[in-house]
Every structure is written in structure tokens, then in C-alpha cells.
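Hi F.,

I've been meaning to write this up properly since the lab meeting, where we talked about keeping a consistent format for the predictions we share between groups. The idea is simple: the sequence comes first, exactly as it goes in, then the C-alpha cells exactly as they come out, then a line or two of notes. No screenshots and no reformatting. I'm using this chain as the first example so we have something concrete to point to.
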Amino acid sequence: MLNRYTDFDRTFAMMDELRRRMDRAFEEYDAPRASLRGEFDQSPRYTPGPRIHLFDTGSALVVKADLPGLTEKDVQISLNQDVLTVSGERKSDAPEGYLVHRKERGAVRFSRSFTLPSKVDPEKTSAVLKNGVLTLTLNKAAEAQPRQISVTSR
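Output, unedited:
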């Protein structure tokens, strides 16, 4: 009887592995196959967006986003109340009139929005794009900053 359950588990494990391999195959299928056939789509592909790291320094929120190959002109940042949106587009980098033999880095368009954990002062924000990493420093609003409360004895 125990043998039947083991066979059952083994069958589902094999089916799960097959599903994972199929997922990987379909993810990898799109861009390389098109470039091998010589089909170059000039329209930008939409992606979910860059990987973002958000941390709290106490007086400010710092957001770091990986944006390789983009310049300041390619990135748009907006802050609407407590929702931060980072969007951008990387255009095709092949010069006009040149023949492309292989294209694995196509045009990409992305947008990421998320709710900030505390209120920030939009007047005291800064954004720096250096070496493909965007660093946003969003100073917290006065009411959102931590306060020290002194304790006295009576």
C-alpha cells in the first residue's frame, strides 16, 4: 500500500519538473528564436520593470533600481501622494541603416508603481543615475520622522 503512494508522489514530482522545464522553454523562446530567423520587432517589449530595493534610513526612504543601459532621459519618476512610479524605455541601439546580425537586447518599456510606507516631502527628493543604478532619496515628511521622547521621573 505504501508503494502506491510513493509511485503517486514520484509521478507528480515528474509532472512538476516537466511544467518547470516547459515554463523555462517558453520564457527563453521569444527573443533568441526571433533573432535567429531574422525577424526583428522594432516595437518595444513591455516588461514588469527593474528590480527595486527600498529601505528606511530613519529620516529618509532610499530606493535603488537596476536600470542598465538607460540614461537620465530614458527614465521618468513620479510621486502622487504616497505612490511612487518609476517608468522608462530603452530604445533599439542599432544605428539607422546598419544590418543587425544578432539581437538579444531589444527595445524595452517598463513601469513600476508601489505605495511608500510613510509620507515623504516631495520638495526634498533627489534622484541620481550612476553606473546603471538609479538611487532615489525621499526625505520623510516632518510628521513621519521618528521623534525622541524623553522620560522623566516624578
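Notes:
Helices lie at 2-37.
DSSP finds one helix and eight strands in the chain.

If this format works for you, I'll send the rest the same way.

G.
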